[in-house]
Amino acid sequence: MVDEDSSYKIKLNSSSFINPFLETVKGNLGVLILTSGLWNFAGSLTGPFETLYLLGLGANYVYIGFLASIWSFVRIFSLLFGGSLADKIGRRPLLVYLSFALSAESLYMAFIPDWRYVIIQRVFDGIISGLRGPSFSAIIADSIPLKRRAMGYALWQIMPPIFGLFSPLIAGNIIDVKGVVSAMRIFYLVVFFFSFTACLIRWKFIKETFKFKLESNESRSKLSLRDVLQPIREMNVSLKAWLFMSFLGGIFSSAAAPYWVDYAVNVVGISKGGWGLIDTSRRALNLAVTPIFASLSDRYGRLKFIIPILFISPIVNVGFTYSHSFRDIYLWLLLATFFSSISSPSLSALMADYTPRKMRGRISAYFNILGSIANVIGGFLGGYIYQNISKGFVFILISISGWIIAFMAIIFFKEPKERFE
Questions:
Q1: What local confidence, expressed as pLDDT, does residue 363 receive?
Q2: If you write DSSP's letter for every residue of 52-103 in order, what string do you get?
Q3: Any idea what the Cα angle at residue 61 is, between residues 57 and 62, rounded to 5°?
Q4: Among 33, 205, 223, 415, whose Cα sits 20 to 30 Å from the Cα of 44?
Q5: Are the C-beta atoms of 268 and 389 separated by less than 8 Å?
């Protein structure tokens, strides 16, 4: 979204940077960074412009909200099983084999004749990504050294997007020449080729990180209600509050999510190439800023880089809503990326700090389940508001919920006295 930024003022041949870097990215994390990078290179051709593709296939804003909601609704049920299975049979089987299924979707998306066929893809993706998601989150948390947790998450968040740094810019300019639908069909074929290659690498090199231990009356092959619900009872207060905050923020973030590009292109009036430039610039900024604050988070704690940003960042959505030019959109979205780059590694590391390894799959599933429920609500809400009430109001709602979450974080978030491996 770097292996190095000049602001570190550390020479490349210095072991103070190289050795910690190699220690952090060795093994599974390095494999996931490489393979997700390949996937990101191609996926960044399609992702920033998917809403425009759906509009080109005959959808309207309400239908786009419906597609987001149906994906989230289906995912609710598979996440619960995915989280339990990740803590029961291990991370690797779900991560590796279900990645092949997700890769195949892009081949389907390249040939669909109209938007209604996307319903099938959203249902399939909801099932597969729900089963795979907790394993993916858990294997990342398992694979990052405890003392370099924020830095590990920073590398995970910024290095795969490096591969796709210029993809939105390239795609936007091609779309301006060839048209949305024709260009996007080609891009989805590119996604299939690169994602399938990534799946083969994962199949060959990913190692299991979770060793199942049989308790007195426990079976590895059976899932019980007790297995599923046990982590809820053992969560600390911060995690329980975080569940609600994630749910609240998820509703309004998902309400606006499909419409950023449409608002910029069709309301403010920037070009598709301009949107691609904005996306590429945001990735480059994230690349430069994230490692700095991740390193500081590992040294000085998490909350110093979370609480202030929660209060400041909602102003960005207000500014975006009242933008009138490419310059306005560009500046506000770069500011949003700057704030996110400061807080995101600390938030991810704090989550891992709070969560015991044996429950990471299920706890990840809880957050994803509530997030999916929020997306169902937000998808319908956002589509209706954006089409029938106000195109700008969906972005204002994010700010309102963001300030509520900021006040809750002051009350419930605490620096962990001990961190789980």
A1: 78
A2: HHHHHTT--HHHHHHHHHHHHHHHHHHHHHHHHHHTTT-SHHHHHHHHHHHH
A3: 110
A4: 205
A5: no
Tokens standing for residue 350: 């704090």
CA gap 37, 153 in Å, rounded: 15
Q: Is 395 helix (H, G, I), strand (E, B) or coil?
A: helix
Q: What is the tens place of the pLDDT at every residue in 49-72?
A: 999 999 999 999 888 888 988 988
> Which residue type is seen at 15?
S
**Low-confidence stretches of the chain (pLDDT beneath 70):** 1-25, 146, 149-150, 211-234, 357, 416-421
The amino acid that residue 109 corresponds to is: M
Q: What is the pTM of this model?
A: 0.73
pLDDT at 417: 65
What's the pLDDT score for residue 19?
58
Q: Which residue has the tokens 């779309």?
A: 175
Q: Which CATH architecture has domain 15-210+236-412?
A: Up-down Bundle (1.20)
Distances (CA, A) of 54 to 168, 177, 280, 388, 399: 17, 18, 22, 19, 27
Q: Quote the tokens at residue 356.
A: 């015991």
What integer pLDDT is reported at residue 216 of this predicted model?
Answer: 41
Residues belonging to the chain: 421
Query: Distance between CA atoms of 342 and 159, rounded to whole angstroms?
Result: 16
Asked if 125 contacts 105 with a C-beta cutoff of 8 angstroms, the reply is: yes
Instruction: Tell me the H-state helices in 87-148.
Output: 92-109, 118-143
Cα–Cα dist 128/142, whole Å: 22
Q: Alpha helices, DSSP H only, in 164-303? A: 167-178, 180-205, 225-234, 237-256, 260-262, 272-300
pLDDT of residue 154: 76
Structure tokens at 94: 């779900």
The candidate with the shortest Cα–Cα distance to 350, out of 314, 291, 295, 297, is: 297
